[in-house]
Amino acid sequence: MLALPPKTMPQNASNTGPRPNTIILPVETLTREFDAKLHLALRAAARGWRVIIGGRTAIHSALPSLPQSIYVAKGIRTGNKRIFRFLEQLGHVIVALDEESLIRQSDEALLMMLDDEMFNRPRLLYAWGKSDAEVWRRFKGYRGTPILEAGNPRVDLLRPELSGYFATDADALRQRFGDYIVISTNFSMINHYIPDHVRFRLAKGTDTARGEEFKSGLIAHKRKIFEAFRTMIPALADAINPVSLIVRPHPSENPATWLAAATGRKNVHVANDGPIAPWLMAAKALVQNGCTSAVEAAIVGTPAFAFRPNISQGYEVELSNRLSTGCGTITEVISAVQRILSGSPPPQGPNMDLLRHHIASVDGPLSCERILDSLETHADLLAAPYKDRLSQRLAGLAGHYRRRVIRAFTTRQHRSKSSAYYTFHKFPGLSEEMVASRIARFRDIFPQLPAVSLYRLSRDIFVIENSSSRVIPTDRKAR
Asked: Within a 10 A sphere around the Cβ of 444, how many other Cβ atoms?
């Protein structure tokens, strides 16, 4: 692995070293996160930051070789506790988004997945908006870490300023399928890619009885919705034939279930390729239950329908429902979709006040700019620890390599949540050509973005830096 030279900004705190000027952007799910984080990387490079971007698994494996950096985590739930500890011990500074806090069954459910140690390791916390920021401040373990309503870089790509980024993809989908309807599923708790795996991890100290009660109730509710979707898909496909029906499973789901539900129907396509944004932009309508896709559809202006065959105040996602038109039966779904296909106007427009309450960056400054501004505004909180903390680094190295030994075994187990089989499903890899082509696409939209140097640090890890920097070797090509 290539060793990067340190690159830091001055910092005056007496008990810390300089603030890192390298940002690490780990990507867990390629189709959901990469484009948005690449956009953040380019805007960071324009401000003089060096950015390391790539697969989360690859980055975690390489942590001891990476320079002290600001690590932008994608979650603050209890499952990330160990890697956060290693990051700090190895001298990295953590700031954190929480990808999952926008779409939640309830505030109580979100709080049950937070614990003191995990929640308080990041120096800055980035909330989607006022809604989840208020929940975080009510957490009993909250100790005053700045909570910034920053939105999410994924939302930036849906805004008019950047809608051209996916325009070519959306046009290609229209050419490929003509008119089509999208069904977005969100049943990883019932239909996980790993057989029998249920993702619902409670934080230490949570009321176990209450947690298990909520979990069992949620599973029961999800199963009823899941079975109703399996029945609805062939019925809707037949009703709109020859119009295509696109089923987009959640990244953690087993797509084979939906292929089976569509057996014998040539107008049904189960598709996981590419981000969902261009699929929504080109679709005539969306059908979903409890999905982030309802929010994304509202922002891009695609009519959304919530199929709600089982009403539950305790287990449904309020935001997705309020941004969609409710349908309680398959017949109602079919009627609603057929009206859209016949040219009738959508039953409701986007509720911008609701969107602004939940997503700070739905208008105004982009989420990327809000995040990067915060790294300047709160520079005093982002100073890295001095490198002479030998005992801490040794502890981090010991924990890191112990983890690697364990993962060498668990990644070979297909039923393990750490299996290489599952990781590849979510992150099949990055090529330099893929990254470079996307950089070129962003620069076509924003010519004012400076040329950047791009090079591979190791498999699935790349470095992006402003070409005017002297750090990257001079034989590397500018993008």
From this structure: 11
Phi, psi of 122 (to 5 degrees): -65, 145
Fold match between domain 8-152+360-466 and domain 162-350 = yes
pLDDT cut 70: percent of the chain above it = 90
d(CA 222, CA 393): 44
Q: What is the mean pLDDT of residues 253-270?
A: 93
Distance CA 395, CA 127 (A): 31
Mean pLDDT for the stretch of residues 62-81: 87
The distance between the two most distant Cα atoms of the chain, rounded to a whole number of Å, is: 69
Tokens of 144: 């005053």
Question: Is the dihedral angle over the CA atoms 282, 283, 286, 291 positive or is it negative?
Answer: negative
CATH 3.40.50.2000 is the classification of domain 162-350: yes
Helix (H) or strand (E) holding 284: none
Cα angle: 252, vertex 122, 27; to 5 degrees = 35
Query: Among 12-26, 128-142, 157-171, 307-321, which stretch is predicted with the lowest mean pLDDT?
Result: 12-26
Assess contact for 177 and 284: CB atoms under 8 A. Answer: no
Q: What is the mean pLDDT of the chain?
A: 88
Q: 304-321: per-residue pLDDT in tens?
A: 999 999 998 888 999 999
pLDDT at 360: 97
Answer CATH for 8-152+360-466 from 3.30.420, 1.10.1610, 1.10.287, 3.40.50 = 3.40.50
For residue 138, count other CB atoms closer than 10 A to its CB.
Answer: 10
Q: CA of 330: how far to CAs of 196, 307, 310, in Å?
A: 28, 8, 12
Token match 């229209």: residue? 174
The pTM for the full model equals 0.91
Q: Give 172's contacts (C-beta < 8 A, 6+ positions apart).
A: none
CB 248 within 8 A of CB 183: yes
- Give the separation between CA 23 and CA 148, rounded to whole angstroms: 18
DSSP 74: S
Kindly report which listed range (11-20, 56-65, 169-178, 433-442) carries the lowest average pLDDT score.
Answer: 11-20
What is the dihedral angle through the alpha carbons of 338, 348, 314, 361, rounded to the nearest 10 degrees? 120
CA terminus-to-terminus distance, the chain: 22
CB-based contact 66:4 (threshold 8 Å):
yes
The residue ranges of every structural domain in the chain are: 8-152+360-466, 162-350
